[in-house]
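Appendix B. Chain record.
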Amino acid sequence: MKKYNVAVVGAGMVGRTMLEVLIERNFPFGGLKMLATREREEVFAGKRIKVEKTQFESFGNVDIALFAGTEGEKGASKIYGWEAVKKGAVVIDNGGDFRMEPQVPLVIPEVNPQHLKNHKGFIANPNCSTIQMVMALFPIYKAYEIERVIVSTYQAVSGTGKKAVDELEKQVAAHVNGSDAAREIYPHQIAFNVIPEIGSLAPEFPGYYTEEAKMIKETRKILGAPELKISATCVRVPVSNGHSESITVQCSRKPDVSKTREMLASFPGLTVMDEPEKSVYPTALSVSGRDDVFVGRIRESTALENALDLWVVGDNIRKGAALNTVQIAEKMIEMGLL
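Structure tokens predicted for this chain:
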């Protein structure tokens, strides 16, 4: 099997997980290096690894460059991404800077791998909340032609990065100790609270924040459905890891609940946990550290005709970021595009 020289750009939560996923899945890398803002040594996946400072020269002799990115941040791929392509690397970017560029495929390998065929050396990874929603929507979309999607998310602080996880833990400890909870990352205290604000206000959708706009625009691009009606409300909750979503899907014809459950259960990368009488459904705690997207509470909507209600939960750092990025590279190898 051909071996590939791989660079992971970013040594935060997503970058670390990318490295772990590459090792876990026996990705055919020959060389593997970590790049970040400064040079240092750290332990990744149980091994002490030298982290190199990212420079334009870093991408010489790199076949695949995985840019970790972080929700809400811009930077590395904007500076180095296309330059890495010029040096011969295929870039797969978890950041949000280029997702809506027409020449950049936006890919979930289980859903739209065909979009990889026309790549120009740069592929974008969708937003974490978009990935897990579209994974659950796609089998329904194929079978019943979705007309409308209404989604509310309950997003973990890990989506913002390690500093946000630390802030939640410190605020909980402060509450237990009876002291004031310091706030730096979010506009309000996140411990024991929910915050309906992720990102900044989106100019194209008045009153919507950018995370909500991402779910709308990215879903349309991935499915090739520019007129699909989507409404999203994205909420940050005091959960360490794992995003949860309540989704209502209205179709052009009446979906069969039993058949839908079977379709979802047989779709690659999805697991159905749907025995509400036994309190069996996915939770953020139960899916954290797992690769699949989990679906439960599958039921006929009481508010809309031809509609279903779903509860969808996934590990936002794994399938929502690191794993999907690695799977794109695997799919490109499988398709003979690398």
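Further analysis of this model is presented in Appendix C.
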